[in-house]
Design brief:
The N terminus is likely disordered. The chain is an alpha+beta fold. It has a single domain, classed as predicted glycosyltransferase like domains (Thrombin, subunit H). The protein has a 6-stranded antiparallel β-barrel. A hairpin with a 5-residue loop joins strand 1 and strand 2. The relative contact order is 0.19. The protein is globular and about 25 Å long. The termini are far apart. 18% of the residues lie in helices and 45% in strands.
Length: 103
């Protein structure tokens, strides 16, 4: 197996992982980079592996963030995978239960 083939397989596996079924929601939350103060965010869709949100702050790709749900009852750690204007896509560090977002 050549290195190029191996690298292509890694990319394919990652893109498959990021194609998890998404649930559309509109949920007010707070996002904060580790060690920073939080900003208002609206989660627009979520899966067990990640979410997309519109946020008031700036986040760099690769930043580790906390997504904190209303009332501070639940939070999840994630890594920002992409940004487009005020939209952010992030992958959870560990899969989450969607029940947390339905409550």
């Amino acid at each position: 197996m050549s290195f190029t083939t191996f690298k292509a397989r890694i990319v394919d596996a990652e893109s498959e992982r990021r194609r998890a079924k998404r649930t559309r929601i509109e949920l007010e939350a707070t996002m904060r980079e580790l060690g920073a103060s939080g900003v208002e965010a609206t989660v627009l869709n979520v899966s067990e592996r990640g979410f997309m949100a519109v946020a008031d702050g700036h986040f760099d790709v690769g930043a580790r963030v906390w997504l904190i749900l209303p009332g501070g009852r639940d939070r999840a750690n994630a890594v920002v995978k992409w940004t487009a204007g005020d939209r952010i896509g992030a992958e959870f560090s560990e899969p989450v239960s969607l029940d947390n977002f339905r409550a």
